[in-house]
Amino acid sequence: MKTGKSARVAELATAGHGGITVSTLAEAAYFLERGFRDITWAVCAVPSKLGRVSELQREHDVTINLITDDAGAARGLAARAAELNQEFRLLIEIDSGEHRTGIHCDAPALLEIADVISKAPHLVLEGVLTHGGHSYDCHSIAEIKQVAEQERSSVVTAASRLRAAQYPCSTISAGSTPTAVHADSFEGLTEIRPGVYLFFDLAQHGRQCCGVDEIAISVLSTVIGHNRANRRILIDAGGLALSKDTSANAFLPDAGYGWVFDEACTARIGDLRIATADQEHGFVEGGDLPYDRLPIGARVRILPNHACMTAAAYDRYAVVDGDDEVVDTWDRTHGW
Questions:
Q1: Rounded to an integer, what distance in angstroms lies between the CA atom of residue 245 and that of residue 304?
Q2: CB atoms closer than 10 angstroms to residue 145
Q3: Binning pLDDT at 50, 70 and 90, where does residue 322 land?
Q4: Computed from CA positions of residues 293, 294, 295, 301, in that sequence, does the dihedral angle turn out positive or negative?
Q5: I need a surface site. Which of 120, 134, 204, 236 has the fewest CB within 10 A?
């Protein structure tokens, strides 16, 4: 839920109040208050954060899934858990190729970490977790499929090693949106955790994970100026409204900071894009600019490069129906 950060979105994704993954403890608090109880905080935990985790667990009578990839950190978590006199559940993070956090599935450290957790009176070894984030670097569906299999096999191998050494491993968790969309097999996994698939965006479209008509999030903006001398149309959505994430450009060279669609979001207007973004200004460029079609005061929709970063600027979603009428407003949490 680090993309949607909304209880209503989570209800759609889980058909109720099913298991979710969050990226901050602020998100965890928000979802706990709205009835979600199976929550994984997918950022390596450190002892100094256990106090807040403890408060949330006691207040809501739950155990949040935490992750670690280091034996020393696990020892620190064990000591802090003993001070708090509370149980904490841990997943060991596996690096399946992204090389951000996690350990290799064959690393000796896997069993060392498992041993630390298993011997700590207040820690429980839940299983293993990975994120195939390197799927975002793939240039074809075939490459994404290879990463998906690498992701799957890494945690399945790690789980087999733990079980062979008589350690418990009830959760085998993987998932990124590209791998969840294109994987040939999920055998051996107990869960997958794609996030941005709920909305999609231009970056996902460029990676062949969705069609343009499947992008469910857009930013409504107003034309505020015509700069004919420099062949630009100005709108009131800049970096704060759209984010300055340019990841889509690796696969869609004309993505800019987002594509410009008509107000009903039914079709892109020519090849218009947000070429430059200041804090509160977006500069529309592309081909013959339709000044007459987009007079000052006209409204357009911008399809974002990265839904997660764009949505992070807002505290609610305006939900529209097929006629582009706002039919509901959904709250969301934000901040860190």
A1: 9
A2: 18
A3: confident
A4: positive
A5: 236
Digit-coded pLDDT (tens) for 226-282: 999 999 999 999 999 999 999 999 999 999 999 999 999 999 999 999 999 999 999
CB atoms within 10 A of CB 118: 16
Dump pLDDT digits (tens) for 16-39: 999 999 999 999 999 999 999 999
Nearest 10 degrees: Cα torsion 195, 199, 202, 207: 50
Question: Read out DSSP for 150-194?
Answer: HHHHHHHHHHHHHHHTT----EEEE--HHHHHH-S--TT-SEE--
Please report, rounded to a whole number, the percentage of residues in the chain having pLDDT higher than 70.
Answer: 100
Number of H helices, E strands in the chain: 10, 15
Amino acid identity at 94: I
7-198 in CATH: which number?
3.20.20.10
Q: What is the pTM of this model?
A: 0.94
Please state whether 166 falls in left (phi above 0), alpha (psi between -120 and 50) or beta. Answer: left
Q: Give 157-196 pLDDT, tens digit per residue.
A: 999 999 999 999 999 999 899 999 999 999 999 999 999 9
Give Cα 267 to chain centroid, integer Å: 26
What's the rounded Cα separation, in Å, for the pair 251 and 204? 9
CATH fold for the domain made of 212-320: Lyase, Ornithine Decarboxylase; Chain A, domain 1 (2.40.37)
Which tokens hold the place of 60? 């809501």
Amino acid at 137: D
